[in-house]
Amino acid sequence: MNIIVCLKQVPGTTTVKIDSQTNTLVRQGIENIVNPFDTYATEEGARIKERYGGKVTVLSMGPPQAEAVLREAISSGADEAILLSDSAFAGSDTLATSYTLARAISKIGEYDLVICGRQTIDGDTGQVGPELAEMLEMPFVAYVSQIEEIDNGHMRVQRMVEDGHEVIETSLPAVITVVKEINVPRLPSLRGLTKAKSAVISVWGIQELEADRGMVGLSGSATRVIKIFFPERVQHGEILKGSLESKVASLVDKLRDANLI
Ligand SMILES: Cc1cc2nc3c(=O)[nH]c(=O)nc-3n(C[C@H](O)[C@H](O)[C@H](O)COP(=O)(O)OP(=O)(O)OC[C@H]3O[C@@H](n4cnc5c(N)ncnc54)[C@H](O)[C@@H]3O)c2cc1C
Question: Model pTM?
Fold first, then answer.
Protein backbone atom coordinates (compact mmCIF):
# COMPACT_ATOMS: atom_id res chain seq x y z
CA MET A 1 0.00 0.00 0.00
CA ASN A 2 1.41 3.35 -1.04
CA ILE A 3 -0.33 5.95 1.08
CA ILE A 4 -0.24 9.73 0.70
CA VAL A 5 -1.25 11.84 3.69
CA CYS A 6 -2.04 15.56 3.27
CA LEU A 7 -1.02 17.78 6.18
CA LYS A 8 -1.63 21.47 6.71
CA GLN A 9 0.26 23.76 9.08
CA VAL A 10 -2.20 26.00 10.93
CA PRO A 11 -1.93 28.73 13.60
CA GLY A 12 -1.97 27.16 17.07
CA THR A 13 -4.10 29.97 18.48
CA THR A 14 -7.62 31.29 18.24
CA THR A 15 -6.56 34.93 18.72
CA VAL A 16 -5.51 35.64 15.14
CA LYS A 17 -5.14 39.11 13.63
CA ILE A 18 -6.17 40.05 10.10
CA ASP A 19 -4.09 42.40 7.94
CA SER A 20 -6.65 45.10 7.04
CA GLN A 21 -4.83 45.93 3.79
CA THR A 22 -4.57 42.40 2.36
CA ASN A 23 -7.38 40.65 4.27
CA THR A 24 -4.99 37.79 5.05
CA LEU A 25 -3.86 36.33 8.33
CA VAL A 26 -0.99 38.03 10.16
CA ARG A 27 1.28 34.99 10.61
CA GLN A 28 4.31 36.73 12.17
CA GLY A 29 4.88 35.80 15.80
CA ILE A 30 2.22 33.08 15.78
CA GLU A 31 3.04 29.56 16.92
CA ASN A 32 2.19 27.09 14.16
CA ILE A 33 1.05 23.50 14.67
CA VAL A 34 -0.03 20.61 12.50
CA ASN A 35 -3.78 20.71 11.87
CA PRO A 36 -5.03 18.37 14.65
CA PHE A 37 -7.24 16.28 12.31
CA ASP A 38 -4.19 15.57 10.15
CA THR A 39 -2.40 13.78 13.02
CA TYR A 40 -5.16 11.13 12.84
CA ALA A 41 -4.58 10.88 9.08
CA THR A 42 -0.83 10.30 9.60
CA GLU A 43 -1.48 7.72 12.33
CA GLU A 44 -3.94 5.83 10.12
CA GLY A 45 -1.44 5.85 7.26
CA ALA A 46 1.21 4.39 9.57
CA ARG A 47 -1.22 1.72 10.87
CA ILE A 48 -2.21 0.66 7.33
CA LYS A 49 1.48 0.41 6.41
CA GLU A 50 2.15 -1.75 9.48
CA ARG A 51 -0.81 -4.02 8.63
CA TYR A 52 -0.38 -4.36 4.87
CA GLY A 53 3.17 -3.15 4.13
CA GLY A 54 4.08 -0.22 1.90
CA LYS A 55 5.08 3.40 2.38
CA VAL A 56 3.61 6.62 3.77
CA THR A 57 4.40 9.88 1.97
CA VAL A 58 3.33 13.12 3.65
CA LEU A 59 2.52 16.18 1.58
CA SER A 60 1.99 19.78 2.58
CA MET A 61 1.46 23.00 0.68
CA GLY A 62 2.64 26.05 2.55
CA PRO A 63 5.51 28.44 3.27
CA PRO A 64 9.02 27.06 4.01
CA GLN A 65 8.25 26.78 7.76
CA ALA A 66 5.55 24.18 6.98
CA GLU A 67 8.48 21.76 6.75
CA ALA A 68 8.12 21.40 10.54
CA VAL A 69 4.80 19.52 10.28
CA LEU A 70 6.35 17.14 7.75
CA ARG A 71 9.28 16.34 10.08
CA GLU A 72 6.78 15.81 12.91
CA ALA A 73 4.92 13.29 10.72
CA ILE A 74 8.17 11.45 9.93
CA SER A 75 8.85 11.15 13.67
CA SER A 76 5.42 9.49 13.98
CA GLY A 77 5.74 6.87 11.25
CA ALA A 78 5.81 8.57 7.82
CA ASP A 79 8.59 7.54 5.43
CA GLU A 80 8.94 10.41 2.97
CA ALA A 81 7.89 14.05 2.86
CA ILE A 82 7.29 16.60 0.14
CA LEU A 83 6.73 20.32 0.70
CA LEU A 84 4.92 22.27 -2.01
CA SER A 85 6.27 25.76 -1.62
CA ASP A 86 6.47 28.56 -4.16
CA SER A 87 5.53 32.23 -4.06
CA ALA A 88 3.19 31.42 -6.98
CA PHE A 89 1.05 29.34 -4.55
CA ALA A 90 0.40 32.28 -2.17
CA GLY A 91 -3.22 33.35 -1.78
CA SER A 92 -4.63 29.96 -2.85
CA ASP A 93 -8.26 29.26 -2.02
CA THR A 94 -9.45 25.66 -1.64
CA LEU A 95 -9.75 25.14 -5.41
CA ALA A 96 -6.16 26.28 -6.09
CA THR A 97 -4.91 24.33 -3.02
CA SER A 98 -6.59 21.14 -4.26
CA TYR A 99 -5.25 21.66 -7.79
CA THR A 100 -1.69 22.06 -6.46
CA LEU A 101 -1.98 19.00 -4.18
CA ALA A 102 -3.54 16.98 -7.04
CA ARG A 103 -0.62 17.88 -9.36
CA ALA A 104 1.82 16.68 -6.71
CA ILE A 105 -0.11 13.45 -6.10
CA SER A 106 -0.17 12.76 -9.86
CA LYS A 107 3.58 13.41 -10.00
CA ILE A 108 4.19 10.97 -7.10
CA GLY A 109 2.36 8.53 -9.36
CA GLU A 110 2.05 5.15 -7.69
CA TYR A 111 -0.39 5.38 -4.79
CA ASP A 112 -3.33 3.39 -3.47
CA LEU A 113 -4.84 5.73 -0.93
CA VAL A 114 -4.88 9.48 -0.18
CA ILE A 115 -5.81 10.40 3.41
CA CYS A 116 -6.83 13.91 4.53
CA GLY A 117 -8.18 15.26 7.79
CA ARG A 118 -11.93 15.98 7.85
CA GLN A 119 -11.25 19.74 7.96
CA THR A 120 -8.73 22.29 9.18
CA ILE A 121 -9.09 24.42 12.29
CA ASP A 122 -8.31 27.64 10.38
CA GLY A 123 -9.88 27.53 6.90
CA ASP A 124 -12.43 25.04 8.27
CA THR A 125 -14.11 24.35 4.92
CA GLY A 126 -13.65 20.57 4.62
CA GLN A 127 -13.50 21.11 0.85
CA VAL A 128 -9.96 19.99 0.01
CA GLY A 129 -10.56 16.20 0.38
CA PRO A 130 -13.59 16.02 -1.95
CA GLU A 131 -12.04 18.49 -4.42
CA LEU A 132 -8.88 16.36 -4.58
CA ALA A 133 -10.93 13.23 -5.33
CA GLU A 134 -12.78 15.07 -8.10
CA MET A 135 -9.56 16.35 -9.67
CA LEU A 136 -7.86 12.95 -9.43
CA GLU A 137 -11.06 11.25 -10.70
CA MET A 138 -11.05 8.86 -7.76
CA PRO A 139 -13.76 7.56 -5.40
CA PHE A 140 -14.18 9.52 -2.16
CA VAL A 141 -15.40 8.65 1.34
CA ALA A 142 -15.76 11.39 4.00
CA TYR A 143 -15.73 11.11 7.81
CA VAL A 144 -14.07 7.68 7.91
CA SER A 145 -13.99 6.36 11.49
CA GLN A 146 -12.63 2.86 10.86
CA ILE A 147 -10.79 1.00 8.11
CA GLU A 148 -12.25 -2.50 8.33
CA GLU A 149 -10.37 -4.30 5.58
CA ILE A 150 -8.24 -3.76 2.51
CA ASP A 151 -8.15 -6.62 0.05
CA ASN A 152 -7.65 -7.17 -3.64
CA GLY A 153 -7.82 -3.52 -4.70
CA HIS A 154 -10.84 -2.79 -2.50
CA MET A 155 -11.29 -1.22 0.90
CA ARG A 156 -14.20 -1.51 3.39
CA VAL A 157 -14.58 1.39 5.81
CA GLN A 158 -17.00 2.77 8.37
CA ARG A 159 -17.98 6.41 8.03
CA MET A 160 -19.67 8.49 10.71
CA VAL A 161 -23.12 9.85 10.01
CA GLU A 162 -25.38 11.83 12.33
CA ASP A 163 -27.14 8.91 13.98
CA GLY A 164 -24.68 6.04 13.57
CA HIS A 165 -22.31 4.82 10.91
CA GLU A 166 -22.37 3.50 7.37
CA VAL A 167 -20.22 0.70 5.98
CA ILE A 168 -18.87 1.57 2.54
CA GLU A 169 -16.83 -0.48 0.14
CA THR A 170 -14.75 1.31 -2.46
CA SER A 171 -12.22 0.42 -5.11
CA LEU A 172 -8.67 1.71 -4.78
CA PRO A 173 -7.06 4.13 -5.36
CA ALA A 174 -9.38 6.37 -3.38
CA VAL A 175 -9.39 9.54 -1.29
CA ILE A 176 -10.74 9.53 2.27
CA THR A 177 -11.08 12.11 5.03
CA VAL A 178 -10.82 10.86 8.61
CA VAL A 179 -12.41 11.88 11.91
CA LYS A 180 -10.68 11.86 15.30
CA GLU A 181 -12.60 8.76 16.41
CA ILE A 182 -10.50 6.65 13.99
CA ASN A 183 -7.45 6.19 16.27
CA VAL A 184 -5.24 7.59 19.00
CA PRO A 185 -2.11 9.08 17.41
CA ARG A 186 1.14 7.65 18.78
CA LEU A 187 3.82 9.72 20.46
CA PRO A 188 7.01 10.08 18.41
CA SER A 189 9.66 7.46 19.20
CA LEU A 190 13.30 8.33 19.84
CA ARG A 191 14.18 6.51 16.60
CA GLY A 192 11.48 8.49 14.80
CA LEU A 193 12.77 11.79 16.15
CA THR A 194 16.30 10.97 14.96
CA LYS A 195 14.98 9.97 11.53
CA ALA A 196 12.92 13.17 11.31
CA LYS A 197 15.88 15.36 12.18
CA SER A 198 18.05 14.02 9.37
CA ALA A 199 15.29 13.45 6.78
CA VAL A 200 15.67 15.20 3.45
CA ILE A 201 12.43 16.97 2.59
CA SER A 202 11.86 17.42 -1.15
CA VAL A 203 10.57 20.88 -2.08
CA TRP A 204 8.50 21.18 -5.24
CA GLY A 205 7.46 24.47 -6.81
CA ILE A 206 5.42 25.37 -9.87
CA GLN A 207 8.13 24.11 -12.25
CA GLU A 208 8.50 20.68 -10.64
CA LEU A 209 4.71 20.27 -10.73
CA GLU A 210 4.50 21.50 -14.34
CA ALA A 211 1.46 23.34 -13.07
CA ASP A 212 -0.61 25.86 -15.00
CA ARG A 213 0.22 29.33 -13.56
CA GLY A 214 -3.40 30.39 -14.00
CA MET A 215 -4.61 27.52 -11.79
CA VAL A 216 -2.46 28.18 -8.70
CA GLY A 217 -2.30 30.91 -6.06
CA LEU A 218 -4.53 33.94 -6.23
CA SER A 219 -4.95 33.76 -10.03
CA GLY A 220 -6.18 30.16 -9.75
CA SER A 221 -8.60 30.99 -6.94
CA ALA A 222 -12.30 31.08 -7.76
CA THR A 223 -13.02 33.07 -4.59
CA ARG A 224 -11.77 36.41 -3.25
CA VAL A 225 -11.82 37.61 0.34
CA ILE A 226 -13.58 40.97 0.03
CA LYS A 227 -13.81 41.79 3.72
CA ILE A 228 -13.00 40.10 7.00
CA PHE A 229 -14.51 41.50 10.18
CA PHE A 230 -15.46 40.49 13.69
CA PRO A 231 -19.23 40.69 14.17
CA GLU A 232 -20.26 43.47 16.53
CA ARG A 233 -21.55 42.25 19.87
CA VAL A 234 -24.93 43.80 20.53
CA GLN A 235 -26.17 42.99 24.01
CA HIS A 236 -29.95 43.18 24.24
CA GLY A 237 -30.32 40.83 27.21
CA GLU A 238 -33.11 41.51 29.66
CA ILE A 239 -33.67 39.78 32.97
CA LEU A 240 -37.36 39.39 33.80
CA LYS A 241 -38.31 39.97 37.40
CA GLY A 242 -41.29 38.90 39.52
CA SER A 243 -43.04 35.60 40.18
CA LEU A 244 -42.59 32.63 37.87
CA GLU A 245 -46.10 33.10 36.44
CA SER A 246 -45.59 36.80 35.70
CA LYS A 247 -42.17 36.13 34.13
CA VAL A 248 -43.66 33.44 31.85
CA ALA A 249 -46.56 35.76 30.89
CA SER A 250 -44.17 38.63 30.20
CA LEU A 251 -41.89 36.37 28.09
CA VAL A 252 -44.85 35.13 26.03
CA ASP A 253 -45.97 38.75 25.42
CA LYS A 254 -42.48 39.74 24.29
CA LEU A 255 -42.19 36.76 21.95
CA ARG A 256 -45.66 37.57 20.49
CA ASP A 257 -44.68 41.23 20.02
CA ALA A 258 -41.56 40.11 18.15
CA ASN A 259 -43.73 37.78 15.98
CA LEU A 260 -41.69 34.80 17.17
CA ILE A 261 -44.72 32.79 18.34
C1 LIG B 1 -9.08 34.14 -1.65
C2 LIG B 1 -8.40 33.33 -0.60
C3 LIG B 1 -7.09 33.60 -0.30
C4 LIG B 1 -6.42 32.84 0.63
N5 LIG B 1 -5.14 33.12 0.88
C6 LIG B 1 -4.45 32.38 1.75
C7 LIG B 1 -3.09 32.65 2.00
O8 LIG B 1 -2.51 33.57 1.44
N9 LIG B 1 -2.42 31.84 2.88
C10 LIG B 1 -3.07 30.80 3.51
O11 LIG B 1 -2.42 30.08 4.28
N12 LIG B 1 -4.37 30.54 3.30
C13 LIG B 1 -5.08 31.30 2.44
N14 LIG B 1 -6.37 31.04 2.24
C15 LIG B 1 -6.96 29.91 2.93
C16 LIG B 1 -6.70 28.68 2.10
O17 LIG B 1 -7.33 28.78 0.88
C18 LIG B 1 -7.24 27.47 2.78
O19 LIG B 1 -6.67 27.44 4.05
C20 LIG B 1 -6.86 26.23 2.00
O21 LIG B 1 -7.40 26.28 0.72
C22 LIG B 1 -7.32 24.95 2.63
O23 LIG B 1 -8.68 25.06 2.95
P24 LIG B 1 -9.12 24.66 4.38
O25 LIG B 1 -8.14 25.22 5.35
O26 LIG B 1 -10.55 25.02 4.54
O27 LIG B 1 -8.92 23.06 4.33
P28 LIG B 1 -9.98 21.88 4.54
O29 LIG B 1 -10.67 21.61 3.26
O30 LIG B 1 -10.82 22.12 5.75
O31 LIG B 1 -8.92 20.73 4.83
C32 LIG B 1 -9.23 19.35 4.75
C33 LIG B 1 -7.95 18.57 4.69
O34 LIG B 1 -7.28 18.85 3.46
C35 LIG B 1 -5.86 18.80 3.65
N36 LIG B 1 -5.29 20.14 3.39
C37 LIG B 1 -5.89 21.34 3.39
N38 LIG B 1 -5.00 22.32 3.08
C39 LIG B 1 -3.81 21.72 2.87
C40 LIG B 1 -2.51 22.16 2.53
N41 LIG B 1 -2.24 23.47 2.34
N42 LIG B 1 -1.52 21.25 2.39
C43 LIG B 1 -1.77 19.92 2.57
N44 LIG B 1 -2.99 19.43 2.91
C45 LIG B 1 -3.98 20.31 3.05
C46 LIG B 1 -5.65 18.40 5.12
O47 LIG B 1 -5.57 17.00 5.20
C48 LIG B 1 -6.94 18.89 5.78
O49 LIG B 1 -7.22 18.21 6.98
C50 LIG B 1 -7.07 31.78 1.32
C51 LIG B 1 -8.42 31.55 1.05
C52 LIG B 1 -9.08 32.29 0.11
C53 LIG B 1 -10.54 32.03 -0.15
Answer: 0.88
Cβ count within 10 A of residue 169: 12
Structural contact between residues 126 and 157, judged by C-beta atoms closer than 8 angstroms: no
What does the pLDDT look like over 194-206, one tens digit per residue? Answer: 999 999 999 999 9
Coil, strand or helix at 188: coil
Give residue-wise pLDDT tens across range 30-40.
Answer: 889 999 999 99
Q: Whose CA is nearest to atom 48 of ligand 1?
A: 117
SS3 percent helix, strand, coil of the chain, rounded to 5, is: 35, 25, 40
Cα–Cα distance measured from residue 1 to residue 115, given in angstroms and rounded to the nearest whole number: 12
Q: Which atom of ligand 1 is nearest to the CA of 59?
A: 43
Which residue has a Cα nearest atom 6 of ligand 1? 91
First-last CA distance in the chain: 58
